[in-house]
Amino acid sequence: MSQIDATFRETAAESRLESEPLSHMSVELGHLYMEDFAAGEDRLHSLLSRVVPWVDVASRTDAAKPRVSTCFLIDDYFRRYSTPAEVVPMLLGVASECGLRIDYLARESACAVSDGVPLAELVEARLTPVPPVGTNGSRPPVTEVGWLSNGQRSPADSEAMRRSAWEPPVEIGARNHSVFVDVELWGERKDGERKWSCAFLAAVWQLLRLGLIRDHGRSVVRPALWLADFPATWDELPAVTQLNPDAKPFAAYRTFSVLPSRFLQVENAVRIILSQVSINPRLLDHIFGRAEAEGMRIPRELIDRAGYVFFNE
Which superkingdom heads the taxonomic lineage of this protein's source (predicted)? Predict the structure, then answer.
């Protein structure tokens, strides 16, 4: 197939954007690693009890009849512990003791690939890094090095630099002072395949919750209602499992995450990534129009649709 034919077919597919049901707010009750589960119920109770006071605050919206769904992300990508049959009932039991309802359970590995769809690659293809003013393009593309920054690095060491003054890194759009951050998106595994970073998968997670990922116009994740016993392997669970039959839609106009403070740096990196992702303008307009029709005020800027609370453990 010629490049022109491929481009035409992709454009034609993009013209048929699949619409998704949307809540007004998606509240993330946790994003824990397998070592948190390995520490047992007391550890989970300690973390989830700190989430409780913030759920009501996080659930407030402009809507007259708010649709609010809750979600929980389990890391089965960087390390796998035990089985869903053991871990999920323990999590749900502790959440219930704390007075929390988890509507949707998601697997972090599904933020990389879900049902054969490479979600991380779809988002990577949408990255449009902003070139700092005055640069000459000498820095390799993000797709080659796997690093994305919010500005301009210090010049690399060279004979010319040793003869001149050092230059500091500069944040794009800095106010008074720069806060320069360089974010690793992926690294190479021994088998040559990419190992996506926690920050990049968390950015994919935010985009899924905002209903902003499409594959040639099609939705990429459809939550699957689960009413049976939980399986013996993580791969047997859907990318997003619906635990509450009466839950409001998984994706939402806005997201709010209540997380331990150890995630502060990761979520700062997430915001840098999201600020440099180019979403289909028609999809953005579609969701903005739906929100407006419901009297729901949402910002045009993508990163302003994601709210956070970080608590000390």
Answer: Bacteria
